[in-house]
Structures are given as structure tokens and as C-alpha cells.
Amino acid sequence: MSGDTNKTEQFDSLFLTIAQHHPEGAHQLLDTFVSFLGRKTDFFTGGSRGDWEKLVMNTFRRQEEISCAQHEAELKAKREKEQAKKAKLVEQQQKEESVKPAEITELTDVEAERLQKEIDDKKSSAAEPVEEEEDESEKGKLKPNSGNGCDLDKYKWTQTLQDIEVSVSLLCSGIGIFGLSKVARFFLDAGLTGS
């Protein structure tokens, strides 16, 4: 096996499960794996004497190189990230230092009145309500009420994502029992009984 990363990573969950059953650590895990190779394969006896040792050492050295290179790359990326962060912090501090502090200037009465008038004019222009222009397609349509529904002559309704509430005003004297007799897709039939 060439040690292709995509092929070896598919066994990570299996090996992690096996490793969790070896509380003494890596030496116990390796002992179990080598014992498996000796009992269930011809790993030790299938080749010339000592071939297994060369194979194991070459595999461990290759994996050590891969692991060390990956670790160095991670450390380098971390150092570069920290340097960039420090450079950004220094740049931000320099910007903050270059900003001039607020200055207090004394105004004459005439300048103060002129400045106050400008401020008042800005406030009054901002306080005027802006008339919304209606589209041609919106003319003649009813405006929704505050409950995203509509207020009509005989009833009003509001809606949320989960519910709809219909309120009907009944002009009658006496006590009665409200009854809902029919609910359909486009209408509902309700009335007062027992009055």
C-alpha cells in the first residue's frame, strides 16, 4: 500500500475505536496489531528473514516524514497568522494615533446663532414626513392593518405565520350561543343560535 491519504483516512474511525480499547497507549495498540499479523497472516514467515523489519522501518520513517512536514506546515501557518495579526494591530494603533483629537473652538454669538439655525433646519427637514408615491398597480387596493390583515365593514382579520384571527361584530341584543356551522376553503358559515 502506498499510503495514499484518501485510502488510509477511510479507516480512521475503525482505528480510533480500536485505540480506545487500549488504555495503556500506543505500545499496547501496536502489540495487538503485530500479534494479529503473526497469528492471522504470513507477515513474519512469508519472506526472507528480516524483510518484515525493513518493511516496518520504511513505513514508520515515511509516516514520520509526512507527519513532521505536516506539523511544520501547521506551525508556519500559525506563525504567519500571528504575524499578520500583529501587523494589523500595529497598523490599527498607528491609525488611532494619527486621528486628531477633538478640538474645542470658541464661537462668537453670531457664529453660534448661524450654526444653531443650520442644525434646526436639518432637524426640521428630517422631521417632515416623506409622502410615499403609490404605484399604478397599488391604486385602489386596500392597505393592510397593523396585524398584516384587513379591516372591513362587517369584519376584520389579522394573521401570523401560524394563525389567522377573524373578528366579526354582531349587532344583536340578548344572549346567544355562537355556532360555527360550516368551514370551507373560500368561506365559513357562522351564526348566533338560541337568542
Structural account:
- The protein is of the alpha+beta class.
- The protein is flat and about 105 Å long.
- The strands form two sheets. A three-stranded antiparallel sheet has the order 1-2-3, with no helix packed on it. It has a two-stranded antiparallel sheet with strand order 4-5.
- The N and C termini lie far apart (91 Å).
- Among the domains are: 10-46, no CATH class; 62-99.
- Helix content is 49%, strand content 13%.
- The protein has five helices and five strands.
- The mean pLDDT is 81.
Number of DSSP helical runs:
5
- Residue share in helix: 40-55%
Oligomer: single chain
Radius of gyration: 41 Å
Largest sheet: 3 strands, antiparallel
Total strands: the figure is: 5
Shape: flat
**What average pLDDT do the residues reach?**
81
How are the strands of the biggest sheet laid out side by side? Answer: 1-2-3
CA distance, first residue to last residue? 91 Å
- Stretches where pLDDT falls below 50 for ≥5 residues? none
Global structural class: alpha+beta
Order of helices and strands: HHHHHEEEEE
Percentage of residues in strands: 5-15%
Keywords:
195 residues, alpha+beta, three-stranded antiparallel β-sheet, two-stranded antiparallel ribbon, 13% strand, flat, coiled coil, NudC_fam, HSP20-like_chaperone
